[in-house]
């Protein structure tokens, strides 16, 4: 254990803490007698159905936040449950938002301060959805821990808490001050958190130097650091015609159908080969540099695996670099659904009177959601006008989340790379996330702090899907990243 103090770090002290922490998680904690507690904590957390999208589960979510505070309080951190107000429901009623847990370990002005962000709410899950095990009963099958929220994001949050706990158990001084911000609304858009961050910018966040987010996964079996996420602009396009639904046998052929109009304009958004047709969108995208191209070349990624995983035999691009680039650093249009369309089984011969298409455009640097909103709205009205339809088109943008991108040359990333190297004995892939973690951008814009994403999760953990899991040893080759979890299998522990 004392070894930790003897490590010689090449980087400056302020970043060496990360390496210490990771080294710590990887080895020393094996001998810590509290490891059974670690597994039990994850089991207790997963047992709570903290589904932030289901209002009926709100009491569970409140209980979840209280449990997080209960976990942190005995550790002596300055723990607070921050009231972030209420959420307005579509029916006009309001419901209390889950409180945000903040905690602080150490306030030595001579040390740097890192802030770990995580969330403990989850996506919905039911056994009937096709889970092999009860999603709220953490189950160990051959080294994989199955349970909703195991990988996203309960185990990673606990891993960081246990790192601090382990320092304490060994009576060692933390090399930095550590803060936590743990929320319960991430899966539905972090309602209330932006305002809380803004409100505490000059208090809780004022002395934070770096923010760590472990809310994503690796790309392959090789460890990864994430340096970018795409944003998302989500649109509704509504076409309204007759005052009520009509019978196609009676009225078909006489009316100009809203659905036909809608399908027509939707088809002008993106070409079959994936080219976005809305003027101005592609032009805004930062060009792919040679260095970036080279970086993508080196990333471990198996196209066939990827195809198998999603069950397709052809992808939009057949080479790795193009595919990764379009997964991470180019925008795309996805059409999600049409409200008001007939989608039940059967053969109803209806002409829907009003239909609302839902589609979104993933955002990348240097796109600007405000501009994208105008580009999309103007374009759709233009193509709609060409149809000379008497129906009414209304386009609205309901989400406008910006992308986030970090500088991989920043000393924080250098420290992260060194930490991964030390733990796994392999250099991490530097990857991006095709999805959106809006809070990263908020942290960056509001607090102006540097952010690093250090994924603690496998590439096949099934986030948001059935049978979500986190590997006990993240990779067969003997990943030691989550030793704090792994060692619950030690001789002291009664599991299964
Ligand atoms: C969880 O699963 C185990 C193994 O199937 C079972 O023995 C246990 O009773 C379950 N616990 C709960 C709370 O359902
Ligand atoms: Zn998450």
From TrEMBL:
GO biological process, alphabetically ordered: proteolysis
An annotated GO cellular component: cytosol
Domain of life: Eukaryota
Single GO term (MF): dipeptidase activity
Pfam families attached to this UniProt entry: M20_dimer (PF07687), Peptidase_M20 (PF01546)
InterPro entries, per the entry: ArgE/DapE_CS (IPR001261), Cyt/Met_Dipeptidase (IPR051458), Peptidase_M20 (IPR002933), Peptidase_M20_dimer (IPR011650)
Transmembrane residue ranges: none
Peptidase M20 dimerisation domain span: 228-380
Keywords noted in UniProt: Hydrolase, Metal-binding, Protease
Family as reported in the entry's similarity comment: Belongs to the peptidase M20A family.
Protein name (database record): Carnosine dipeptidase 1
UniProt source species: Sparus aurata
